Amino acid sequence: MRSLSLLERYSTIAALGLILTACTPDEKPKVDPTPTADSTAADLSNPPVGVYDNSIFSIPSPIQLGSIIANNGASYDNEMLNKANKADMYATTASQALNLGIYGADLGYTTLYDHQQESLRYMRASRKLADVLGISEAFDDATISQIERNLDNKDSLLYLISNSYRKADDFLQIRERKHIGALIIVGGWIESIYFAANIGKMNQTTEITNLIGMQKHTLETILDKMLIKYLDEPGVKDLYTDLESIRESFEEINIEYTYSTPVHDKENKTTEITSTTTIDISDEVFKEIGVKIELLRKKIIL
Amino acid sequence: MKKIIALFVAFVSLSVTTNAQCDTIANYCHKNNFTVNYISDGQNYRAFLFGEQEAEFTTTFFGGATYRIAACSGFSQGSLIFRIKDEEGNVLFDSMEFGNVPYWDFKVTSTMTVSISAQLDLHETQSGCASILIGFKK
Fold it and tell me: How far is the CA of B63 from the CAs of A240, A249, B39, in angstroms?
């Protein structure tokens, strides 16, 4: 019998690996049920999907950052937002993805402040960019209609918007276009930090200081876990370099954590986490971060 | 050559099936564990796990907020164990101690960095798509 070539062997191993990974979760696998993480990764010879590739990362939601800003008593300022009619200006995939993230944060901001007509404009601008990026499913006609019907219901609107961005993220992960998903998330983050730094110029409350200070960790995640993986994709290297410069300022921030035992409430399925964090950030560093973020944002929104 | 093409087709089609399955699980998880009172953070945290493999990521909990974490693998609730640890490695929550509850809420006093990890309950399943969702209360 003819022996298998290297390519055939690889294909056989990969196909078998996928057959195993494609079992429905409730089915029992047909081989050793408890392989170790190391042996599994080695046996599957780096398949395109399947094995955990340490690529999960979390960036704070622009809507959550926006609600911290809104709860902080800052008044509505539409001068801070990117213009909704600029969607057609973004020609490259990187620029479209980053600005879709920026529009997402703007959409969250206008919604949180009950500016429904502006929300609709940002929704349409987001849809335009989603279309050119090939992720129209996340902002389909049914979702847009639902949003139009719920314009007076802020809670439903926020739910629908965040769900649209979640669907977009999901769609990009499935189609192995994770770098576009990463750029959308980073765009939303940049816009949110720009809002916070801008509002902090006028009124630097503890909440705003903490919000900015904790981005030290977020920026580490963005650079070291997200963007580092996509440096070969167009536009990512420049963004990485700009964010590296912002990281230098974040490194001046001191964060101290004190553990405290959490309190569980089984009946209400709730845990109260009472540990505390102290964030020390000088006025100079706060301003410097604001200036650097503003410059980067200008470069992105054109 | 035909063998290679056939294997390649199987490889690609099963890859799509697996991903589509993860997609369906994330939507199932969202539908069953979140109400309109919780806003998604806009991201899906997922990994395909085998046996004792563990998926982990870090995130920020902001002080004064209440978060809901939901964890699913497959279409039965409670087959994914999730743990939350602080930056020093102290376990703040372990779903196994609460009967593999599929979701739990966290009231956070002070802004902090936490790590969230997920592992299959091997009594329920040996492999599958792990999906974790985070929402915050309005």
Answer: 29, 23, 17
Check CB contact under 8 Å for B7 and A266. no
pLDDT at A128: 95
Determine which helix (DSSP H) or strand (DSSP E) holds B3, and give its type and residue range: helix B2-33
User: Per residue in A224-248, pLDDT tens?
Assistant: 989 999 999 999 999 999 999 999 9
Partner residue facing B52 (CB), from A24, A34, A51: A34
* pLDDT given for residue B12 in this prediction: 46
Q: In the block, which residue shows the tokens 């042996």?
A: A39
* Residues paired with residue B49 on neighbouring β-strands, in sequence order: B128
Long-range contacts of A210-213 (CB under 8 A, 24+ apart): A210/A277, A210/A279, A210/B62, A210/B63, A210/B111, A211/A65, A211/A68, A211/A69, A211/B62, A211/B111, A212/A281, A212/A286, A212/A289, A213/A253, A213/A255, A213/A279, A213/A280, A213/A281
CA distance A254 to A71: 25
- Pairing state of beta strands B80-86 and B91-94? antiparallel
What is the distance in angstroms between the Cα of B99 and the nearest Cα belonging to chain A?
Answer: 10
Contacts of A153 (CB under 8 A, 6+ apart): none
Quote the minimal CA–CA distance from B32 to chain A in Å: 14
A275 and chain B in contact, CB less than 8 A: yes
User: pLDDT by residue (tens digit) across A28-40?
Assistant: 322 222 333 333 3
| Helix (H/G/I), strand (E/B), else coil: A298 | helix
Overall number of domains in chain A:
1
Q: Inform me whether the C-beta atom of residue A143 falls under 8 Å from chain B C-beta atoms.
A: no
pTM exceeding 0.90? no
Question: Could you read off the pLDDT of A161-173 as tens digits, one per residue?
Answer: 888 888 888 778 7
Range of the domain at A255: 2-72+81-301
Residue A88 corresponds to which amino acid?
Answer: D
**Residue A246's closest CA among A223, A279, A225, A278?**
A223
Contact A65, A72 (CB under 8 A): no
Cα angle: A20, vertex A21, A24; to 5 degrees: 95
- The predicted pLDDT at position B6 comes to 58
Closest CA to B29 of B37, B19, B40, B18: B40
What span, in angstroms and rounded, lies between the C-alpha atoms of A178 and A162?
Answer: 18
